[in-house]
C-alpha cells in the first residue's frame, strides 16, 4: 500500500511550528504540551493515519509510544526538527532505526546530532 494523499499524513506540534505544513494541505494537530501530543498521536493512529510527523521536542517525551508503534507497519511515526532548530532527538532516533534495520551504523563519521566529527585535533580528513 502507498500513501494516497496528504490525508494519510499528519503532523503534531505547537501551532507556530506546524503552520507551514497546513499550507501544504497536511492534516495538522496543534498541541501545547507533550501530553496533548501523545493523545493526538494515539487518536491519529486509531483513525488510520499512516504517516505521523511529530516535532522532536514533543516526540522525546513519548519514546514508549514510538517504540510501541515501531514494530507495526502503520502508522510510521517520524520525529522531525522544529523550525527553531534541531535538538538532536530526531537524528538520534533515525540513526537508531537505520542501525537496527541495516545492522550497521551508516552514519559513521557523524555524531548523534548528525554533524561531522572532527578527527585528532580537528585535522583528520583535511588536505
From TrEMBL:
- From which lineage does this chain's organism come? Bacteria, Bacteria division TA06
Name-wise, this protein is: ATP synthase subunit F
Alphabetical UniProt keywords: Ion transport, Transport
Q: Provide the GO MF annotations for this entry.
A: proton-transporting ATPase activity, rotational mechanism
* Family under the similarity heading: Belongs to the V-ATPase F subunit family.
Which SUPFAM superfamilies does this entry report, sorted A to Z? AtpF-like
Q: Where is the signal peptide?
A: none
